[in-house]
Each structure stands twice: as structure tokens, then as C-alpha cells.
Amino acid sequence: xxxxxxxxxxxxxxxxxxxxxxxxxxxxxxxxxxxxxxxxxxxxxxxxxxxxxxxxxxxxxxxxxxxxxxxxxxxxxxxxxxxxxxxxxxxxxxxxxxxxxxxxxxxxxxxxxxxxxxxxxxxxxxxxxxxxxxxxxxxxxxxxxxxxxxxxxxxxxxxxxxxxxxxxxxxxxxxxxxxxxxxxxxxxxxxxxxxxxxxxxxxxxxxxxxxxxxxxxxxxxxxxxxxxxxxxxxxxxxxxxxxxxxxxxxxxxxxxxxxxxxxxxxxxxxxxxxxxxxxxxxxxxxxxxxxxxxxxxxxxxxxxxxxxxxxxxxxxxxxxxxxxxxxxxxxxxxxxxxxxxxxxxxxxxxxxxxxxxxxxxxxxxxxxxxxxxxxxxxxxxxxxxxxxxxxxxxxxxxxxxxxxxxxxxxxx
Amino acid sequence: xxxxxxxxxxxxxxxxxxxxxxxxxxxxxxxxxxxxxxxxxxxxxxxxxxxxxxxxxxxxxxxxxxxxxxxxxxxxxxxxxxxxxxxxxxxxxxxxxxxxxxxxxxxxxxxxxxxxxxxxxxxxxxxxxxxxxxxxxxxxxxxxxxxxxxxxxxxxxxxxxxxxxxxxxxxxxxxxxxxxxxxxxxxxxxxxxxxxxxxxxxxxxxxxxxxxxxxxxxxxxxxxxxxxxxxxxxxxxxxxxxxxxxxxxxxxxxxxxxxxxxxxxxxxxxxxxxxxxxxxxxxxxxxx
Lengths: 412, 288
Prior knowledge:
The complex is a heterodimer of chains A (about 400) and B (about 290).
Chain A: H1 2-23, E1 28-29, E2 32-39, H2 46-65, E3 69-71, E4 74-84, H3 89-101, E5 107-109, H4 114-127, E6 131-133, E7 149-151, H5 161-170, E8 177-183, H6 186-202, E9 205-212, H7 220-229, E10 233-237, H8 239-252, E11 259-262, H9 270-274, E12 282-285, E13 294-295, E14 299-300, H10 301-312, H11 318-337, H12 342-350, E15 353-356, E16 359-362, E17 375-381, E18 387-393
Parallel strand pairs in A: 2-4, 2-5, 5-6, 6-7, 8-9, 8-10, 10-11, 11-12
Antiparallel strand pairs in A: 1-2, 3-4, 12-17, 13-14, 15-16, 17-18
Chain B: H1 2-31, H2 38-54, H3 62-85, H4 90-112, E1 125-128, E2 133-136, H5 137-159, H6 161-171, H7 173-178, H8 183-208, H9 216-230, H10 235-256, H11 261-287
Antiparallel strand pairs in B: 1-2
Helix pairs in contact in B: 1-5, 1-8, 1-9, 1-10, 2-3, 2-4, 2-8, 2-9, 3-8, 5-6, 5-8, 6-8, 9-10, 10-11
């Protein structure tokens, strides 16, 4: 009896061992390349998490329907295993661990937000799993010496420094005074560092440097200071809440400032929520559909936007576009590496130099994309109150002329 | 002019906070429950006004519709959860309402999405002192409505039968029970009234600020502080400490910088608690 029991338990142990090791061959099964992604489908980042997932899915469908990925003379199709990280960094790190060690995923796509990418990057690095991410822009991601992290987007410190340059240019090359209000989180503080660099570079002067608490949705005190100091530029970054609060209170308190630059206007649906009050705001964006970058899969921004809207029913925010671009980067790297060896794919990723509908992609040593400038668009409204975002800088991509200075509230 | 602006901004903000704290003080006094979900009820009230706005109804109507819906939600929560913890240890009620808070956050996130939203009232701005002081009419509207509801509630508590029953229960629930007050009904109504006040405040917040499923906690903490400063059962005190805190916050922000705003408020709270303890110990010595 005892012996049968021992034999039985031995057999079941072997069966369990095999069943788990079968799943750990899941990276490339048959004609499928399986990628893993922890995405915020619930929790506070769920809106942008869904934008990210839609971007990934759109690119997977497109690449698969257009012939897939050719490696070693064979054609493969992309497939993604998703897990919901509940917008929680700890959970995201656990899920990355699970994707790699249990599901056997050997290539990863990034989550949404800098915070979650920071949580996952040490895990993918430990296992040597190449990760192409599209939604973590914090500068600290690229200074840690990660070898397997690649970001298709421009780092956070480049978001708004263009605005300072633009203000100086409009001031006939003379330095300007800058008021800053930034939320106290990693991303916004990185944006702030970029602005500080630009202030130093141009010899400009900061007159207000407020740090907004995360839980605050009232900027009245900062705006009172702005009214008093009368700066040439007001820069605000505090995610969607910051953008919405700033526009609401600037309009209510009739704060006149020649230039207003901010982040997250897209995600905040600024012009939809505030209508004409959001007019003339300058917004930093990773991508805009009117940019004329091209590729073979989505053709260009306008076509991408039209296809995306047809499939998901809304205009794609830049979070979706950059997510789609991540898949294009992976396809390109697999084909150049002509192998599924993680090291070879990593080296191929590091050597990426391509153009996509989203922009040029070329990675620096730290993994950030250095070949794609940020764009600034300005909210412009017509007489009927219909507002549109128009690219005004850099000049090469501009589809409209910058309106500067912003007309005073008494003249509007 | 800056001083006037900061003062007025603080006052208008403080009145709104006082309304939320008012509900908390009422329920704390009557039922001995510290409601951690207070802020989440506020946000839920805000969403009701926001949805009216989305469907083309002016969000100001939210101050009438939202409290009615929230009253029933409040009574529902009482019947489901709170009545099981009402006579228990304070710690149990904190845990229970903390659970409700998390549940509400997740449900709101699930139902309404994680976007930050707001309702535009289109009320414009009042300019004073040669346009040097600006007062958003939406904030003035919020303050007026808050005051109306607060005064209405005080009168209701004094004059109505239920109001008297609530006050009697707050003073001594056992005695009230013996004298024929249905305390179970009183508790349910108190929780409902608190939720209704949160509904009003939420509707006003959607008009003046922004709402988001995870934004409730700061409102809970703020109202908790106001009640601590004012003391239980001291409704004029709640109003005063609400406004005082609002003004103090604005000045702290202006003088020390925005990053020290919340820190300054907490420092004030600590000072007040230390001062109270000091006063209390002196009293004790006197009693000896």
C-alpha cells in the first residue's frame, strides 16, 4: 500500500512538473510569438490602461493581417497575454514575475504610467526579458543602466522645455519670466526639471515654483501669485486633474498670461470639457495625428486615427498611438535579429532606427527614444465654439501659426 | 488686494468643507461612528450632478436631486452594514466604513471610469475692486447653498419631531429608547441625512472643482479635522472652524508655498490638540 502511494505521488509530481514546463515553452508556440503585458484595466489608471491595450491590439491585428513576423524563413503571428495590474505597482511587479516564470513569456510590452514601468523594469531586467514600453516617460527610468528596457516615447524632461524656447523666440530672443506649478509626482517633477534646464539655458527667470499636492484640486492661491507677478509663461503639469483645474480656475479668476503651457490636455479632453475657456492653451504631446511620419502598416497619422476610430469608436489619444508603435518596433527587431534568442533580440532592439506613423524611433544607451521630438499643439476654437488641437511647434510639423500673446480675458 | 482675495477664497472653500463636516459631526455625535466613507459619499453625490449635466440638465439642479438619491443610499448603507456596528467599539465602525469606502471607490471607478470630470455651470465671475479680486460665481453659489442647507438643518433639528428625536438620541440613547423613541429609525435617518448633506456638497464640488472616484479621502480627512477642532455637537463651531481652516489654508499656501499647504493644516491640528490637552489637564488640576 505504502509503495503504491509513493509511486502514485511520484507520478503525480512528474505530471505536475511536466504540465508546468509545457506552459513555460509558451514564448513562441507553433506560429505564435507570445508577448506579455500587465495593463491597468481597473483602478485609477484604467482609462489610459484601456487606451494602451487598444493601441496594442490594433497593432497586433494589423501586423498579423499583413503577413505577420518573418523569422528564419517562417511566418509568425503576435499574441498578447494580458493581466490586470489594478493600477498598483506591487501587483504589476508580481504579474511581470508571473508572466515570465509561470507563463514563460520571453518578451514584454510595457504597462501604463511611469510608476508601473518603474515597478516592472527591475523584474524584466533580472530575467533578461526585452521590454518595449510606450507609456513610461520618467527620466529616472533611463538613468538606471537598464539593458533590456526600450521606450518608444520621448522622456518627461522634454515635454515642456520647447514651450520655454518658444516663449524666448517670441520675445525676440530675450529671456522670459516663468511661473511653474507642478504636481509632486515622479512624472511632473521630471517635466519640471526639463523646464528648469530650459530656463537656465535661455537665461530666463523663474518667478513662481509651486509644487501641487496630489490630493489638491484647487489652484487659486497659485493663480493669485500669477496675477501679482505677471510672468511671461505659466507652465502647469499635474496630470488630467491639473490640466482641468488650471483651465477652470484661470477662466474663473480671469488670469491674463501671455503663454500657458501644460501636459495631459489630450487625456483630459480639455476642449471637450471646457470648450472655449481652454482656447490658446499650449499642450505637450508625444504625437498628433496631423504629423506626417509614415510606415507600411498604418500609413500615416490621419489614416491611423481614422482606422482606430472605426474600430474603437473614439479619436486615438497619443497613448494608443505610442502603444501601437511598440509592436512595430518588436516586429522590426525580430526580423532583423532573425531569431528568438533574447540577447539577439535585445541587440536588434538597441540598433533600431526606423520611422513609424508615430515618429522616428532610435534608442539611446539608456533606452529612451532620442529621434522623436515632442510636439506642442494649441487649442484653437472657431466662432461656433468648436475647438481643435493644432500643432504649432516645432515649426517643421506645424499645421497652424501660434497665437501669441494670448488675448486678455477682457478682450475675448 | 491679495489678502482680500486669499481671505475670500478661503472662506468660500471653508463653507463648503464645513457642510461636509456638519454631516460627519451629526452622525458622530448621534451614533458614535466615524465615517471614513464620508468623502466617497461626497464624490458619489458629485457624479449624480455630473450625470445630470451630461444629459443636458443644469448641474445646479443636482443640489436638489443628489441629496434625495443620496438619502436613500445612506439609509440603505445603514440597513446593510452600519446597524450591525452602531453599538460596537469605535474601531469596528472605522473598519466597517473603511471597507465601505474602498468598495465605493472601486464601484465608482467601475461604473463611471477613472477619468477626472467636472460639470460646467457657466455662472461666470464677479469682479471686485477694479477687477483685482475675482470671485467665481460658482463658488459663491456653493457657499450660499451650503449656508441654506446648514441653517435649514439646524431649524429642522430644533422644530421637527424627528429632529428632536435625533437630538434626544444623541444626548442619551438609552433614555430616549425608554421614552419611546425608535432609535433604530433615528439612526437610519441620521445616516441618511448625513449622506444627503454629502450629496449636496458633492454636487457643489462637481460645479466648483473636479471629481474622480479616488478623490474622496481628502474630504474625509478635512471634515474629520474640522470636527476635531470644533468638537462634537457644536454646529456653529463646525461652521467657524470650517471657514477658519479654509482661510488658514489659503494663507499658508500663499505665504509658505503650495507644497506646505496641507502640512500647515496638520501642524495646526496638532497644535490645537496639544492646546486642548493642556487646557484639560489644567481643569483636572483645578478639580483636584
